[in-house]
UniProtKB/TrEMBL annotation:
Residues 5-255 form the ABC transporter domain. This is Peptide ABC transporter ATP-binding protein. SUPFAM superfamilies: P-loop containing nucleoside triphosphate hydrolases. The lineage of its organism: Bacteria, Bacillati, Bacillota, Bacilli, Bacillales. The keyword Membrane applies. The keyword Ribosomal protein does not apply. It is found in: Cell membrane. Belongs to the ABC transporter superfamily. Gene3D superfamilies: P-loop containing nucleotide triphosphate hydrolases (3.40.50.300).
Length: 337
């Protein structure tokens, strides 16, 4: 079992005016070199916080409370900021929907790309420039030979996003974290970017963590999928099993809310009645019980553990409906709660 990334019982909290709130709880998953994991769930479910924890970019109010994040044999939660800086952008790259580490307005696109490429790819100046232009073309930037000398404010938001993607991919990271990478882009460019990510995976065995509310993208890209709800993993399965045989009532709801093809693509997503519970007021028992049509008394009072479906290949679900199916030998489930 050669995992590139192992996240183990991760718990992340944020300090707020009303005290500390746990936003990610007991999140566990593994990712091998060259493998793609998809993370789905409504906004606020902890998808982005999970990825920001791996990058150690939680800001001043965020804190990893428990758990471990092992990357390529190193424990990221223990590293100094300087060591983390070497890993970021080199071994682990991240693409955000709204780039947090946005482009520096003072330097031209080329300047910023060349610095990065020169630093990490060991190329001469002219090689680096040719490579940067090639990467800009690959993300669908027209007139890349001219654009490379422009300053960021001259570009549209969509173009800046593509420059950010070109930068993230140009260093051939071992792990690429893509958080809603193409949400702001039009369909053609979106398809181009996804193709580029697939190519990178094929050529460089890059592991990819793709976070999206778009199940179509998840189905197209992911080998396995985590479904998150209210800060927890509620289901995990390989992509075929998840789409074929979803178990958790929340996942079933997500599947049913997939819009039919291209019509009203965004609107119908997540039409499960009710809303995600607030972090300050997490319900007892199952966190989904207020929205679940199968909820029983047990669901209201007892937290369901993540159970492994018997006879499956690592299909896990956090739901009392499957307590009979618990695979006792897995060590994941608990017999008593
Ligand atoms: Fe629904 Fe109960 Fe399963 Fe929660 S544990 S998803 S409330 S059936
Ligand atoms: Mg997010």
């Amino acid at each position: 079992e050669n995992n590139l990334l192992e996240v183990d019982k991760l718990q992340v909290a944020f300090r707020t005016d009303k005290g500390e709130v746990v936003s990610v709880d007991e999140v566990t998953f593994q990712l091998k070199q060259g493998e793609t994991i998809g993370i789905v769930g409504e906004s606020g479910c902890g998808k982005s916080v999970t990825s920001l924890s791996i990058m150690r970019l939680l800001g001043r109010t965020g804190l990893i409370k428990k758990g471990a994040i092992s990357f390529n044999g190193r424990e990221l939660t223990q590293l100094e900021e300087a060591q983390m800086r070497e890993i970021r952008g080199n071994e682990i790259s991240m693409i955000f929907q709204e780039p947090m580490t946005s482009l520096n307005p003072v330097f031209s696109i080329g300047n910023q790309m060349l610095e990065l490429i020169h630093l990490h790819m060991k190329m001469s100046k002219s090689e680096a420039r040719a490579y940067a232009i090639e990467m800009l073309k690959k993300v669908g930037i027209p007139r890349a030979e001219q654009i490379i000398d422009e300053y960021p404010h001259k570009l549209s938001g969509g173009m800046r996003q593509r420059v950010m993607i070109a930068m993230a991919l140009s260093c051939k990271p071992r792990l690429l974290i893509a958080d809603e990478p193409t949400t702001a882009l039009d369909v053609t460019i979106q398809a181009q970017i996804l193709e580029l990510m697939k190519k990178l995976r094929q050529e460089s065995q890059t592991a990819i963590m793709i976070i999206s509310h778009d199940l179509g993208i998840i189905a197209e890209m992911a080998d396995k999928v985590l479904v998150m709800y209210a800060g927890q993993v509620v289901e995990e399965a390989d992509v075929f099993t998840l789409f074929d045989d979803p178990k958790h009532p929340y996942t079933v709801g997500l599947m049913e809310s997939i819009p039919h093809l291209e019509h009203d693509s965004q609107q119908k997503l997540f039409s499960i009645p009710g809303t995600v519970p607030h972090l300050h007021a997490m319900p007892k028992g199952c966190r989904f019980h207020q929205r679940c049509q199968h909820a029983t008394e047990q669901c209201v009072t007892q937290k369901p553990p993540l159970l492994t479906i018997q006879g499956s290949n690592g299909h896990r679900v956090r739901c009392w409906l499957y307590q009979e199916e618990e695979q006792v030998v897995s060590g994941y489930g608990q017999n008593e709660v």
